[in-house]
Amino acid sequence: MKKFFLLIPFILVVVLASFFYFSLSAPNNDTTKKAFVINQGESLTSIATRLEKYHYINNRYVFIIYSRITALNQKIKAGTFYLTTAYKLPDLTLMLTKGGITDYWLKITEGQRLAELSVTFDSSLEGYIFPDTYLIPKDYQPNQIYTDIIKKNFDKKFAAAKVDVTNTQLTDAEVVTLASLLEREARTLPSKQMVAGILLNRLKIGIALQLDTTAEYARDSKFPPQVYWQEASSVDVKINSLYNTYLHPGLPPGPICNPGYDALYAAFHPTVSNYLYYLTGNDNLMHYAITLKDHNTNIAKYLK
C-alpha cells in the first residue's frame, strides 16, 4: 500500500506531462491556411477561446499558461493571421507576435457620409456602411471590404434592430433612409425615437419634412467642401435637389449618411405621439410641438 501511495505523485506527473505534450502538439496535419483576425485590444482569454473553437490549438488554458510563462502574451499583435491547424502551439504563439497581414484600421463614425470616408465605396452604398472599427487586410479592394466585412456587420445589426418592429409604414430601404435622417437630427435613442414618430406623422399627412440636414447633404453633394455638415443657410434650403426636403415632399431618394444602431432601432421602433414639430434648443434639449404656433413659441423661447 505504501508503494502505491508513492506512485501517485509519479502517475500525476506522467499524466500532466502527457496532457501538456498533447496540448502543445498540432491539432492535426491539415496545412490549409485560413484567416484568423485578432482585434485591437482583444483579451488573451478571448483569443485563446477562439483559437480553440476553430481547432488551431488543443486547449485554451495551456495556450494561456504557455504564452504567459514565455511572456509572449505581451507581444501578441492585432491583425489578420493566416493559420493552419498543423502548427504546434509554440510555433503558432510565436507567429501571433510577428504582426498580422494588415495595412490599417478603418474607423467609421455614426453620421458620416461616404464622401467623408478614407475608403472610396460605390455611391449606392450610402447608408449601408455600418459605423464601427474594422480591421482591413492590406490586399482588400473596396468591394471586398464591403462584401466580406462591412456588409456582414450591417446585416447583423440591421436584423437585431428590426426585432419586434413597430413601424410597418416603410420598406427596409426607406427605414435606412429614415435612420440616416435620425442620425443627423437627434442625439439620444429616446430623442431619435421621438423624431422618428414625428417624421412619420408628417409623411402620413403629406407635410414636407423640411430638414436642414437634407439641404446640407444636397449642398455638399453639389459643392464638395473641406468640412461637411456646416449649418444650412437660407440659400441652402432653396437648392434644387431631390434630397432637399424643403422643396420635395416625402423622404429623400436615399440615405444622407451612414446611421448607427440606435438610429436604425429608432426607425423601426418610433415613439407614437401627436407631435409634428421639433427643435434642438440652445439648452441642448429637444422641444416638441403639435401646432405651428406652439413650434414658433419654442423657437422664440429656445433658439433666440
Explain what you see.
This protein is 43% helix and 9% strand. The chain is mostly helical and 304 residues long. Among the domains are: 25-95, Endolytic murein transglycosylase (Dna Ligase, domain 1, 2-Layer Sandwich); 167-302, no CATH class. It has a two-stranded antiparallel sheet with strand order 1-2. It has a two-stranded antiparallel ribbon with strand order 3-4. Strands 5-6 form a two-stranded antiparallel sheet. Helix 6 packs across helix 7 and helix 7 packs across helix 9. The radius of gyration is 27 Å and the shape is elongated.
Order of helices and strands: HEHHEHEEHHHHHEEH
First-last Cα distance: 94 Å
Average pLDDT reading:
90
Class by SSE composition = mainly alpha
Question: What proportion of the residues form beta strands (DSSP E)?
Answer: 5-15%
Number of helices: 10
Question: In angstroms, what is the radius of gyration?
Answer: 27 Å
How are strands sequenced across the largest beta sheet?
1-2
Principal-axis shape: elongated
The total count of strands amounts to 6
Largest sheet: 2 strands, antiparallel
Low-confidence stretches: 10-17
The level of helicity is: 40-55%
